[in-house]
Amino acid sequence: MNLYHSSTTTTTTTIFTVIFLLLAILFTLTPHKANGATCHPEEEAGLLGFKSGIRSDPSGLLSNWISGTDCCTWTGVECHYNSTRVQRLFLTGQKPETILSGTISPTLSKLKLLDGLYLINLINISGPFPNFLFQLPNLQFIYLENNNLSGRIPDNIGNLTRLDVLSLTGNRFIGPVPSSITKLTQLTQLKLGNNFLTGTVPQGIAKLVNLTYLSLEGNQLEGTIPDFFSSFTDLRILNFSYNKFSGNIPNSISSLAPKLTYLELGHNSLSGKIPDFLGKFKALDTLDLSWNKFSGTVPASFKNLTKIFNLNLSNNLLVDPFPEMNVKGIESLDLSNNSFHLGSIPKWVASSPIIFSLKLVNCGIKMRLEDFKPSETYFYDFIDLSGNEISGSAIGLVNSTEYLVGFWASGNKLKFDLGKLRFGERFKFLDLSRNWVFGKVPNSVVGLEKLNVSYNHLCGQLPKNKFPASAFVGNDCLCGSPLPPCNKA
Ligand SMILES: *[C@@H]1O[C@H](CO)[C@@H](O)[C@H](O)[C@H]1NC(C)=O
Ligand SMILES: *[C@@H]1O[C@H](CO)[C@@H](O)[C@H](O)[C@H]1NC(C)=O
Ligand SMILES: *[C@@H]1O[C@H](CO)[C@@H](O)[C@H](O)[C@H]1NC(C)=O
Ligand SMILES: *[C@@H]1O[C@H](CO)[C@@H](O)[C@H](O)[C@H]1NC(C)=O
Ligand SMILES: *[C@@H]1O[C@H](CO)[C@@H](O)[C@H](O)[C@H]1NC(C)=O
Ligand SMILES: *[C@@H]1O[C@H](CO)[C@@H](O)[C@H](O)[C@H]1NC(C)=O
Ligand SMILES: *[C@@H]1O[C@H](CO)[C@@H](O)[C@H](O)[C@H]1NC(C)=O
Ligand SMILES: *[C@@H]1O[C@H](CO)[C@@H](O)[C@H](O)[C@H]1NC(C)=O
Ligand SMILES: *[C@@H]1O[C@H](CO)[C@@H](O)[C@H](O)[C@H]1NC(C)=O
Ligand SMILES: *[C@@H]1O[C@H](CO)[C@@H](O)[C@H](O)[C@H]1NC(C)=O
Ligand SMILES: *[C@@H]1O[C@H](CO)[C@@H](O)[C@H](O)[C@H]1NC(C)=O
User: Fold this and answer.
1) Backbone φ and ψ of 131, nearest 5°
2) Suppose 439 and one of 50, 144, 419, 462 were both cysteines; which one would form an S-S bond, judging by CB atoms 3.0 to 4.6 Å apart?
3) Tens digits of per-residue pLDDT, 480-489?
4) Which is more confident, 34 or 294?
5) Which domains does the chain have, with CATH numbers?
6) Which domain of life is it from (predicted)?
């Protein structure tokens, strides 16, 4: 008891000593905060200039930006640890609360030691690329993401040679990716996605050898994907989805193995075969080649993608045989709309303990749904098995999923009593059109967001509902709004 007591006292004393020392250190290191609490007057003026460029700040994000108070304590302002000079401006919004409207005032050029400008998800910040950034010699990080900036990316962007990150993702920039970008050789991240950029990818990007993240998705870029990847030794994320790229997957992508984790080329016009070398990407987390014109078979080397979580090969021209994968836990799989004849839902799908999205539309599956016995259904959100020849009942599968959001199985041979289908609280979408489903339409479906049970063998009076007639037509004897009224027998 005594021992315990004395050791507690010792601990307490030690803690106080440590706190005292820390305070003393803080005190000596931050004299500005102790003596009057103001920051560099020029920088305060620069920040207040930024504030006056913001027309509307409904959430009061900048409400503590008040003249005469220490600007190092203002929301989003980070000063150098040992001085009163502003090092970073970091403002990030959350929809819909923190939307800022206005422009980025050039008075920010007064923050001479700024090394990072982060204006993220502010949605309604408009105007051109802020040209005053060229006057900030220390600038290393530019994150102007998900705002409403427009115009061209300046041709002399290459002057910002100290840049480590350039992200202009999610704005309205037009025109080409300037070729001077090739001078930004210290870049580790170049993110220009979700703008309106046109033209081709500058060959000079090959000089940005330290890139780990290259994303140009969601633009209108065209031409082939340059065969320049052998110069990158550290690239982890490559996202060229949603553009107009054509041609083959270039061979030099092979040199990104084994480090590459995201390869996203979906929604382009790429063609040719899926290269064998993709099987070498041992660290691949996500492979999205969907909505292109890839043809031929999926390489047998895909057996070696044992750690892949997300695989989307949908909407291409791929043919059998599909390789037997060795992946332990696929999270999302989409093989829809190719020319596969899978026969059944693959075993490596049923055995995944973490799968949340399974889309096998038009995959030539001919099985009884009862024979699909997933080892774990806890994570399932979406199941789309439309356009196959699946027979039997969906009752067991849908019932076993706790959090399913949508089940689509249009155009199969399912045959069960709709009245016995049970679904969980998050369930919103049900499409069983063009099957052999029978029974009555139960009350439980009226709260769904979307429903389609047309062209089945349902009968009886519909519960009061908000769905259009096309959701119910083509059944044996359904009646009641929106279909014609039931005959009183
Ligand atoms: C702050 O520290 C850096 C090095 O860490 C030094 O170069 C700079 O002179 C210091 N600034 C002040 C105001 O002490
Ligand atoms: C964005 O700015 C425009 C033009 O100034 C304005 O009409 C609109 O209401 C703003 N939107 C939001 C969500 O604040
Ligand atoms: C973004 O700016 C454009 C003009 O460039 C304007 O038409 C549009 O309403 C703005 N968007 C928002 C969300 O304010
Ligand atoms: C950018 O570089 C060009 C030459 O490449 C030079 O003429 C120009 O003055 C520079 N602009 C700025 C703002 O530094
Ligand atoms: C790439 O990064 C390394 C290590 O940070 C650095 O030494 C090298 O100078 C960088 N390369 C270029 C071209 O900047
Ligand atoms: C790639 O781009 C797509 C489309 O914008 C997006 O959904 C996806 O999250 C992006 N992936 C990465 C790793 O940035
Ligand atoms: C690919 O499939 C996944 C899972 O179904 C989905 O989240 C993703 O958006 C798809 N990608 C494209 C480009 O459609
Ligand atoms: C899988 O990888 C191993 C070793 O890396 C290799 O020997 C084998 O050929 C690969 N399998 C396929 C089908 O490519
Ligand atoms: C399959 O293709 C049809 C049209 O051919 C399209 O409407 C549907 O969205 C595609 N399904 C998937 C999951 O990609
Ligand atoms: C599945 O069926 C069991 C037994 O009938 C029932 O207790 C459970 O609530 C059902 N689950 C769902 C999601 O409807
Ligand atoms: C229901 O499915 C049928 C046939 O698949 C289709 O023609 C109809 O437009 C769909 N209706 C609704 C509301 O989705």
Assistant:
1) -70, -20
2) 419
3) 999 999 986 5
4) 294
5) 41-349 (3.80.10.10), 350-489 (3.80.10.10)
6) Eukaryota
